[in-house]
Structures are given as structure tokens and as C-alpha cells.
Amino acid sequence: MTRKTTGIPGLDGMLQGGFPFPSAILVAGEPGTGKTTLAVQSLFHGAREGEKGLYITAISEPQWLVQKFLSSFSFYNQELVEKGVVNFIDIGPTLLKNPSDMLNIIKKKIEQYQPLRIVIDPITPMTDMLQWRGETREFMHEIFAYLKAFNCLTLVTAELSYDDISHSQESYMVDGVIMLSYPEEEKVRRKFLEVLKMRGTKHTTGRQLIDITDEGLAVQAGLR
After folding, report:
1. For residues 153 and 187, is the Cβ–Cβ distance under 8 A?
2. Whether the predicted model's global pTM rises above the 0.90 cut
3. Which one of 50, 108, 178, 183 is most buried, counting C-beta atoms within 10 A?
């Protein structure tokens, strides 16, 4: 199986060398667990290897504010952004004005930039907006079918807890699920990563301790 290295220290060793390629990977967790950091760190890792990257978001924060937050990490490279190797796209206006057109906009952006790595961060507001219209299931099926056919690696983040995963549509449609959490243990919160699912991969199981520093996210595999 072809694999792409993750760009996350300690994670490749848990996944027989990296993410399956092509594939769609769900990075799930509650707010503040490190989902965006992991996904964008992997995106810039691919860019340094010569892969075009595309970051798609629909959050309410201005795009420049998102990039300002990310620029605090050493893996963020503004030169790669200016050269168009990594592109940041905000589809928030489309989500608010015409949610039903969101899938077509995403497809057009992907076909325009031809990325090998894609980050959709997060997918939660998209599915929430479509839920009241009864279009969530159709959107999820079409977007993941399209991404797999496009021959790329996609990391999709979602605001989900452990209790949410078992009945979430995303977890059934993707090729892999990475869960990030920060439980309180003995009055101290520590952050963990757990690979719940990775097709075609004999992956390491169980929660693994992670650190998030100025350099980004790293997995301390074997430490609990």
C-alpha cells in the first residue's frame, strides 16, 4: 500500500510508515485538543515534500486570523503560501448564503488547485448547517466519494467526543479515525492521541501522550 508520511513526530511509527494514500482521515476531538494543529502541520509537511496543499474552512473567524494563529508554529511557512504551494480557502460566505451549493464550491476549488493534500477544518459547521435541510447524509456521501476518487490525502477535522464517534456519519465514511482528547487525571489534564481506525494498516492501539509546542504536535508513543 502506498503511504504518505504524516509530518507528525511519533505518528508514522504507529501507522506502518504513514497515512494510506489515497485516503480520507477523520481527526476528531473536542475544542482545544489539537485537531487544526495536527492537520495543518501535516499539510505543510507535504508542501515541503513538493505536494500542493489546500486548506478549506467555513468558520466565522477571518482567514487572516486563522493564518496568524498558525504562523506561531515553526512548521508554518509563509513563503509556501505566497508561492501558492499551500492555499487557504474560506467557504464561509457560501455556507451562509447557499448551503446547497457548498459541495460544488469545494469541488471547484479542488479542481482549480489540484492538491495532493487537503484539510477540511472543521466539517462540523457544514454538516450542522445542512442538517435542518435534511441534506447531511447526501453531502457526506458525495464529498467523501469525490475525495477518494480524486486521488489525494484528505484530513477532515470534526468537533466530536468519544461518545459521539460511534454514531457519527463521518467515522463510517472515512478510511481512518484519529481521536484527540484531554481527560482530567488526578486533577491534571493531559492530551492524548488514539488511532481508532486505519484501513489496511496494523496500527498501534490505545491512547498515546502528545505534546504541543512551538514546533507543533508530537506523539510520545509508549507513554501513558
Report:
1. no
2. yes
3. 178
